[in-house]
Amino acid sequence: MAVKFFGQFLVEQDAVTGESLLHAIELQERTNLKLGEMAVAMGFITNQDIETAHSAQLSKDMKLGDLLLDLGFLSLNQLEEVIARQKATHLYIGEALVKVGALTADKLDYYLAQFKADQAPFVVERVELPEWLNENVATWEAVVDLTYKMITRVVGIQFRPGKFMEIAALSNNHMIAAMDLSGDLTARYMLSVSSNTQKAIARAILREENVEEESVEILEDTVMEFINIVCGNVVAKASQSGINLEINPPITIHPPVSGLPVPDGYRGVSFPIHVGNDEIMEMALFIK
Amino acid sequence: MKKVLVVDDSLSVVRQLEKILNESGDFICVGHANNGAEAIKMNHSANPDIICMDMNMPGMDGLTALRSLVMLDKDVQVVMVTSLGGVGDKFTEAIKLGAKNVISKPFEAENVLRILRAL
To answer: What is the per-residue pLDDT across B31-84, written as a single tens digit (0 to 9) for each?
Structure first.
């Protein structure tokens, strides 16, 4: 019931051991050459050219392939040939597990079908985003869509997503849980909830029918745990597209009545989530 | 009955896991630690059979603690329980460091118990 990658799914299903997965990953690392290594193997450039390009990368924010073109070490045709060879010779983890004898080809087909079904609920759907959020769109869509999906799957409440709004401050509510995303992107993820929605989240996370007697600390902790689940799954989804993100442990914020202002250097966007007739929770992002 | 130590800074996750373990009939939760450093101390004092540990905690994180736990106690059986389970690098690092398995959040009780029973 979470975003997974195929190797993890297999270990979790007890289809392969962690040790055999590591052997398969080692085989992948030996087989799947990086762009520079492949260009050397194809005789287009030398190791010295790669060293020069890596040194140039310290002052130029460019991908290695673009830099090798820029420096005149590779022609565009050669770069395309290298990328095509990388794709053609890429060893996937399932194939690697068959090669190291951890899985049969039949079992691989069986578990690939199982994996596809397991992950179907986490295929990210298109979400309307502000025009200024036009880079790393897939990751921002995952942030919003996985929030919706986890509300359905974890909390189990009915809701209606509203249209996004650019904001100067996140409105006050009963509580706000926040989590910082860093790495390839920098943003603060926040979920602002009413008292009723907080209790609905608490009932789901604690697996209790009645949470009226629970302490404020526990009730707030359940909302923090919920956003930890959302953000962890966002990080997993982003990693599948080569976007590396880190998360810090979640925190609770009790802003002033005027709301939580967007800090300097950031832009704020809120995604209202209508719960029932008159309850609104908000998922908001402050993005650097 | 196998003794389990739960390591997580989230009180609600500790409550969830305690409930699942104590209602299973096969496991008993013998305590909980808030971070990796406490886990190392409690592995010595509570002598659990299994440790269920989060990765992302303030103070000493789960992977750092895992490295120390495996070094100090070669018989320790650690299962990571984390929202970051689906991140390939994190999963692989945990297995390389000696974790027996990695359970992703949100988890289902049956899945947690199946993985712990397989140890």
So the answer is: 999 999 999 999 999 999 999 999 999 989 999 999 999 999 989 999 999 999
Q: List all residues 6 or more positions away from A174 whose beta carbon is below 8 Å from its beta carbon.
A: A193, A194, A195, A197, A198
Query: What's the fold here for domain B2-117?
Result: Rossmann fold (3.40.50)
Contact between B98 and B74 under an 8 Å Cβ cutoff? The reply is no
Q: Do A8 and B102 touch (CB under 8 A)?
A: yes
Determine the residue among B16, B104, B115 to mutate to test chain A binding: the one whose Cβ has the most chain A Cβ atoms within 10 Å: B104
Cβ contact A1–B107 (<8 Å): yes
CATH 1.10.150.20 describes domain A124-287: no
**What ipTM, to 2 d.p.?**
0.93
In the A/B pair of chains, how many CB contacts fall below 8 A? 114
Structural domain spans, chain A: 6-121, 124-287
| Chain B residue at shortest CA distance from A226 | B106
Domains of chain B: which residue ranges? 2-117
Report residue A102: phi and psi, to 5°: -85, -20
